[in-house]
Write a structure and sequence with these properties.
This protein is globular. Helix content is about 15%, strand content about 35%. With about 500 residues, the protein is of the alpha+beta class. A six-stranded antiparallel β-barrel has the order 4-5-6-9-8-7. It has a six-stranded antiparallel barrel with strand order 10-11-12-15-14-13. It folds into four domains: about 45 residues, no CATH class; about 220 residues, Thrombin, subunit H (Beta Barrel), CATH 2.40.10.120; about 90 residues, Pdz3 Domain (Roll); about 120 residues, PDZ domain (Pdz3 Domain), CATH 2.30.42.
Length: about 500
């Protein structure tokens, strides 16, 4: 897409007007004279010559957040296989060990009694880690141990609590719905652990959709945001928090002027519920969806950029119960149009579970409206598991379990998950089936060469039933201790009868 920019020189001072010679922009007052060459635009109130006064008022409520984590890692002897292997005694072999990890981010106080808002990813460990301590540091250098009040992975928000005798300075959420592209904004945070850093810019876009999730809607800004700014506030010129800095788009890892903030209108209700200790429940239909492309719209006679196509329907969920079918094009939910900026996932997620709402869709070229009772959205982990066994060609899903099961991926080239009713439904097997579903196979492994595939089921290992990854890992470790270089797996094929396969253990 191309963008044309008109460039002119102007001095921006509080209360001054700007003379433009670029035609007739929206809202401009055009002089009604013969040459009509003067266009006068008054700047929106609150565009200062300096941000110093505003920063001085707001900075005391913006804090730095750090965590101390215990992270489990797989240790190994760096001299294994060399004459020096035993030189330093028993190093634990390949047994897991722990190391200390840290994370840094930003946050802001929303009450005098010490409630702090930040991003969930700032205070949540990655991988096999545990957060042991959260520390909030004030701009004056004073530190407070924080306790977790509540967090929500779906919206990437978290609320902490710190305590002291004196009241804390705090800021308030504003109305992000009133934000416009071109408005001035100020970001304050802790980039790269530097603390108390102020940057300014404008809103580049409102309600930028940057993903397919229910909450992948952001305010885009060119104010410099870097690592460590996560969880910090994005202020308007009235000193209200209109966004929570969350992510950047960058090929270099540093700010290139494309930052994203969670809109205050999205964040504030979730923060309040977390603060009260309430569970976050969201609406759910139980469908997978796809965009209405230009060709799709032309084929059905639909307006462009409206509606989403139902690709599949989950049995037993709200959509299936209401009669929604694959191929339906949902164009509105509860009276609100489905658009790229207002997706089906977002609209439904913000409906209280149990509410009956109208859903308008197009089927066979005809528009119809049905009544639907909204279900409860599963957690992010449950959704990921429920979608684990899609098409066999989905490479990204194939690789994820191998990362999660490091030992089994290394030794057998397999990623496995226990069979539960949801996975049994995906695999088309009885809910009473026990075993491990193969979710990923390393193409270079002996298991792959022996024909084991994704969606196969491991029923036993060395003639012992297995129902968890830990059980299979224990059997492999036992085999290694006994000097055996293979394990015998009983495998139920996705197509065909069960059989026994000897899989070599990789060094």
């Amino acid at each position: 897409m191309r963008y044309a920019y008109g460039v002119t020189s102007a001095l921006l001072l509080g209360g001054a007007t700007i003379s433009l010679i670029t035609g007739q922009p929206a809202g401009a007052q055009v002089a009604q004279n013969d040459d009509a060459r003067i266009t006068a635009v008054t700047p929106r109130a609150g565009a200062p010559a300096s941000f110093a006064d505003l920063t001085e008022q707001l900075a005391p409520a913006v804090v730095n957040i750090s965590t101390r984590q215990r992270v489990e890692v797989q240790s190994s002897n760096p001299f294994a296989g060399t004459p020096f292997e035993g030189m330093f005694g028993d190093r634990g072999g390949d047994q897991p060990t722990t190391r200390e990890g840290q994370s840094l981010g930003s946050g802001f106080l929303i009450s005098a009694d010490g409630y702090v808002v930040t991003n969930n990813h700032v205070v949540t460990p990655q991988g096999n880690g545990t957060v042991e301590e959260i520390t909030v540091t004030m701009p004056d250098g004073s530190e407070y141990e924080a306790k977790m009040v509540g967090k929500d992975a779906e919206s990437d928000l978290a609320v902490l609590k710190i305590d002291r005798a004196e009241p804390f300075p705090f800021v308030k959420f504003g109305d992000s719905a009133q934000a416009r592209a071109g408005d001035w904004v100020v970001a304050i945070g802790n980039p790269f652990g530097l603390g108390g850093t102020v940057t300014s810019g404008i809103i580049s876009s409102v309600l930028r959709t940057a993903g397919a999730g229910a909450y992948d809607r952001f305010i885009q800004t060119d104010a410099a945001i870097n690592r460590g700014n996560s969880g910090g506030p994005l202020f308007d010129m009235q000193g209200n928090v209109i966004g929570i800095n969350n992510a950047i788009l960058s090929p270099s890892g540093g700010s290139v002027g494309v930052g994203f903030a969670i809109p205050a209108d999205t964040a504030a209700p979730i923060v309040e519920r977390l603060r009260r200790g309430e569970a976050i429940e969201r609406g759910y239909l139980g469908v997978s969806i796809g965009p209405v492309t230009d060709d799709f719209a032309a084929a059905l006679g639909l307006p462009r950029n409206r509606g989403e196509v139902v690709q599949s329907v989950v049995d037993g969920e709200a959509a299936q119960k209401a009669g929604i079918e694959p191929g339906d094009v949902v164009i509105s939910v509860n009276g609100k149009d489905v658009t790229p900026d207002q997706t089906l996932s977002f609209l439904v997620a913000n409906v209280k579970p149990g509410t009956t709402i109208p859903v308008t869709l197009i089927r066979d070229g005809k528009q119809r409206t049905i009544k639907l009772k909204v279900g409860t959205r599963p957690s992010a982990e449950e959704l990921a598991q429920s979608q684990m066994f899609g098409d066999d060609g989905e490479e990204d899903e194939m690789n994820a379990p191998l990362d999660q099961e490091e030992f089994l991926a290394e030794k057998l080239g397999l990623g496995v998950v226990p069979i539960n009713p949801g996975i049994a439904r995906q695999l088309g097997i009885s809910a009473e089936t026990t075993g491990l579903a193969v979710a990923a196979v390393d193409r270079n492994s002996d298991a792959a060469r022996k024909g084991i595939q994704r969606r196969d089921i491991i029923l036993s290992a060395n003639y012992r039933p297995v129902t968890s990854a830990e059980q299979l890992e224990g059997i492999v470790r036992d085999a290694e201790r006994e000097g055996r270089n293979a394990v015998v797996l009983r495998v139920q094929r996705a197509r065909g009868p069960a059989g026994y396969v000897a899989v070599r253990i990789q060094d």
